[in-house]
Design goal:
Rossmann fold, 44% helix, 11 helices, single chain
Length: 262
């Protein structure tokens, strides 16, 4: 389904039973709502799920120029307003987790809980050139050169070898990502710097990370956990960046247990 929010066309899906608590799912860079299929299937009986494509991804509009995390948080805020969702649980992975932190700080009281998966609250200055190079690469050669290196960061080698269909599905999402959307979000991602403000977020926080995540490693999850009083940290073994796909059962169980206890 599509609607207009914050001046752009946003693609979204609704799953689960009406009247159940809302759960919003926000995907990583170069993915779409399809990233969340295992969690949607497992949780739709207990929650009313909103999964949406971030600006510049999936079937949402890809505006040109640099995006900011505040802009992406505003997109979600106006989408929730459009759908008349006053409160919701939130789960975001990687870029989705950065959007979630930014949103929770800008719009306090809307999130009932905040689950931050394979993400960070702060990037060191040394990370900026990496993102600049990726932007230059996609703007000159498209998404193809990024696909294989990305898959190698996102999944462990055993998973890639043993689950070729799942890996190929994500490769297709990467290749289908509009260059404008990838570049726009890649301007936003390295600017996150909210470590000192996490204590301002009053809702319960769960931090999940794959033990083998090279992009947003366990140390980054531990930084979030250390700066968010009362938060819970779950490290999933044998999982890299897309922990929700590499260890779907462990990821979903951690999320479900957290939502039930909050």
């Amino acid at each position: 389904m599509k609607t207009r929010a914050n001046g752009i066309e946003v693609n979204y899906e609704l799953h689960g039973r009406e009247g159940a608590p809302w759960l919003v799912l926000s995907h990583s860079l170069a993915c779409s709502v399809r990233m969340w299929d295992p969690q949607i299937a497992a949780l739709k009986d207990q929650y009313r799920i909103l999964a949406y494509d971030t600006r510049g991804h999936g079937a949402s509009e890809a505006t040109k120029g640099a995006y900011t995390l505040e802009l992406l948080a505003d997109d979600l805020f106006f989408l929730l307003q459009e759908l008349r969702i006053e409160q919701a649980h939130f789960c975001g992975l990687s870029m989705g987790g950065m959007i979630g932190q930014t949103f929770a700080l800008k719009y306090p009281g809307i999130f009932r809980t905040l689950t931050l998966a394979d993400t960070t609250c702060h990037y060191p200055a040394a990370a900026a050139p990496v993102w600049t190079e990726r932007i230059k690469l996609v703007e000159s050669k498209g998404m193809e050169p990024l696909a294989q290196p990305t898959l190698e960061r996102w999944f462990t080698e055993p998973f890639r070898n043993n689950n070729p269909a799942a890996v190929e599905a994500i490769r297709k999402l990467i290749l289908a990502t509009p260059v404008a959307g990838y570049a726009g979000c890649s301007h936003a991602i390295p600017t996150i710097n909210v470590s000192a403000r996490l204590k301002e977020i009053k809702c319960p926080i769960l931090v999940i990370v794959g033990a083998d995540d090279p992009g947003t490693p366990v140390s980054m999850a531990e930084e979030i956990h250390a700066n968010a009083p009362g938060s819970k940290l779950v490290v999933l073994p044998q999982a890299a960046h897309l922990a929700n796909l590499e260890q779907p059962e462990g990821f979903t169980n951690a999320l479900r247990d957290f939502l039930r206890s909050s």
